[in-house]
Amino acid sequence: MLALFFVPLMVLALGMVTNVWMLFSLYILSGLGMAGIGMGVMHDAIHGSYSKNKKVNTLLGYSFNLIGANATIWKIQHNVLHHTYTNIDHADDDLNAPFFLRFSPHAKHYWAHQFQHIYIWFFYGISTISWITTKDFVRLKRYKDMGFFDKKHEYEKTFISMTAWKLFYYSYALVLPIIMLPFSWSVILLAFISMHFVTGLLVSIVFQVAHIMPNNEFPLPDEQGMMNDSWYGHQFATTTNFSPNSKFLFWLIGGLNYQVEHHVLPDVCHVHYKELTKIVSETALEYGMPYHVKKSFVHAIWDHTKMLRMLGKK
Q1: Model confidence pLDDT, tens digit, residues 140-172
Q2: Residue 15 — left, alpha, or beta (φ > 0 → left; ψ -120 to 50 → alpha)?
Q3: pLDDT digits (tens, 9 = 90+) for 24-47
Q4: What is the reported pTM?
Q5: How confident is residue 228, by pLDDT bands cut at 50, 70 and 90?
Q6: Do strands 240-242 and 292-294 pair parallel, antiparallel, or not at all (unpaired)?
Q7: To the nearest whole number, what is the mean pLDDT of the chain?
């Protein structure tokens, strides 16, 4: 996945491309590698499950910084908030969205939501562009207000480090090709955006179809702010697997078609999910817990679309 991302960009940075279709093809190929790094490399590494060696996990976690995002912010957003409060409105940060998107039946409803199942694919596509430009900085400030960056100068150091990593990313992924290639900057920028559109669409769909589904629950905490179910029961009720028999999809998206196994065993590397699914599903049945699974990726996307349409109704 690292090679799939970096090799096409290296070809572009060396000025070896003179055909505009080759320009777009290499950027799009790199976009698949970027998605692969996000789902199959850094995801395990930041969960601490890529290796038994913490230094290896830390090192590979920085691959997220190399593709323009930030490992520190992701660890809070994903490991802490999403995995602890899955599908709980205002607690699971994956449900927090601009006003024109509604991912929870408990979120405020607006008139435009009735069309979200149509226009949402565009916003999924530009999600990583938003991520690497503004969203990480917005989350950094919000997480500081929530008390996550409470050590002396931790917020300032994280801000400076994040800015430096992003400047480095833009330098080699966009600025260098603009300097080296015989195309106008606008054409190269469009190709760069197409790379992110591929990444954003794939990553957003994979993570969203696992939770924003008709059969999944969207529980609310009780009056004391506690979850009404056990943590394991909560993960089973709010998560869905899809396309369990696709070896290609399993490789491409880092095993995240086995989202149930990932959510109940987040510290296990994704290469083991397929072997664990029989144990996990039988345990869910034994204890009367749901085990949601869609037979194909297309089926999962279809049900996700139906759920978006349901959420769009008042």
Answers
A1: 999 999 999 999 999 999 999 999 999 999 999
A2: left
A3: 999 999 999 999 999 999 999 999
A4: 0.93
A5: low
A6: parallel
A7: 95
CA-atom Rg of the chain in angstroms: 20
Q: What is the per-residue DSSP string for 248-311?
A: HHHHHTTTTT-HHHHHH-TTS-GGGHHHHHHHHHHHHHHTT---EEESSHHHHHHHHHHHHHHH
Amino acid at 30: S
d(CA 292, CA 213): 10
Q: Which helix (H) or strand (E) holds 202?
A: helix 185-209
E strands, the chain, are 240-242, 292-294
Q: What is the pLDDT of residues 88-116, one digit of tens each?
A: 998 999 999 999 999 999 999 999 999 99
Joined together, the tokens standing for residue 284 give 């869910």
Dihedral, CA of residue 27, residue 32, residue 35 and residue 40, to nearest 10 = -140
Residue 111 belongs to domain spanning: 2-312
Rounded Cα–Cα distance for residues 155 and 141 (Å): 8
% of the chain surpassing 90 pLDDT:
95
Amino acid at site 176: L
Provide the pLDDT for residue 101. Answer: 96
Is residue 87 packed enough to be buried (19+ CB in 10 Å), middle (13-18) or exposed (0-12)? buried
Give the 3-state secondary structure percentages of the chain, helix then strand then coil, rounded to 5. Answer: 65, 0, 35
Measured in degrees and rounded to the nearest 5, phi and psi for residue 211 equal -130, -35
Distance, in Å, from the CA atom of 241 to the CA atom of 248, rounded to the nearest integer, reads: 15
Residue whose token pair is 């500081």: 144
